[in-house]
Design brief:
Blueprint: H1 2-12, H2 43-52, H3 60-74, H4 82-105, E1 121-124, E2 127-130, E3 135-141, E4 144-149, H5 155-164, E5 171-173, E6 178-181, H6 187-226, H7 230-263
Antiparallel strand pairs: 1-2, 3-4, 4-6, 5-6
Length: about 260
């Protein structure tokens, strides 16, 4: 019995059985499971390797130079158009002058006009709202204004807004429309309106000077950033100053004309 077991064990350990055993090194040669190919190095790793080779021989140094110099090529100070700064300043000055002219038109001179109520604000649902957005204003006669409110439930709010304004007229609410009788201007009222016109003009001049100040600051910063000469800065600053004088003159003319209309009996 012992002899039989010994012969079986000897047969199992014999080298003749080895080809049937799948050893680890034999998997690479199997046609059914080919060995995986090595994946290419990631781009980031290649870049890192190229940087390590910078300064040395071979193409690694060239690759590193391309990687490092790419961001620098896209940099550089942006060129500033000083003429655009001057043009923008002039456009803003035009708007300031237009705003003054519109405000002057709201000052009445004895004849009823719809724009007399343009500055009236109404507390509509707790929001200050221009009257012209809430109602139409007509002049059936030379001395009367009629306010037709779109939302009839807001008639009371519109009436309060008119009474709280500085138009110098008492509204009459009949439940459908609001009427305003334009009284003849007294001497004291004319003097008061003339002062109002002058104040509107001063506010317009302040706005013009603020535009000039902003433009000069932009020009100085742009010249400094671009490394230009002081002559370039002075030329453009002079152009802005000329625009300021031009629009200040137009503003003074508009105010003077309106003051004359107000004070003329």
């Amino acid at each position: 019995m012992a002899a039989a077991l010994s012969s079986v064990l000897a047969a199992l350990c014999s080298t003749a059985w080895l080809p049937a055993v799948q050893l680890p090194h034999a998997r690479a040669a199997s046609p059914y499971r080919p060995a995986p190919a090595h994946a290419p190095l990631p781009v980031v790793m290649m870049a890192k390797k190229a940087k390590k080779g910078k300064g040395g021989g071979g193409g690694g140094g060239t690759a590193a130079a391309e990687v490092d110099e790419a961001p620098a090529a896209s940099g550089g100070a942006a060129e500033v158009d000083l003429d655009a700064v001057v043009s923008d300043a002039e456009e803003r000055m035009k708007k300031s002058l237009s705003s003054v002219q519109e405000q002057l038109a709201t000052l009445r001179v004895g004849r009823a006009t719809p724009d007399m109520l343009d500055r009236v604000l109404v507390d509509y649902y707790d929001t200050p709202t221009p009257l012209k957005q809430l109602a139409s204003v007509t002049c059936p006669t030379a001395t009367q204004l009629v306010v037709d409110v779109y939302d009839k439930s807001a008639l009371g709010d519109v009436e309060k807004g008119l009474m709280a304004s500085d138009i110098g007229m008492t509204p009459s609410n009949d439940g459908s429309v609001i009427r305003l009788n334009v009284p003849q201007l007294t001497k004291d009222r004319r003097v008061e309106l003339a002062k109002t016109a002058k104040g509107i003009g001063e506010g317009g001049k302040t706005a013009l000077r603020n535009v000039r100040r902003d433009a000069i600051d932009k020009i100085k910063k742009a010249v400094k950033a671009a490394g230009l000469s002081e002559d370039a800065s002075k030329d453009k600053e002079g152009a802005v100053d000329k625009k300021l004088k031009k629009y200040e003159g137009s503003l003074d003319e508009a105010v003077s004309a309106r003051e004359k209309e107000i004070t003329t009996l």
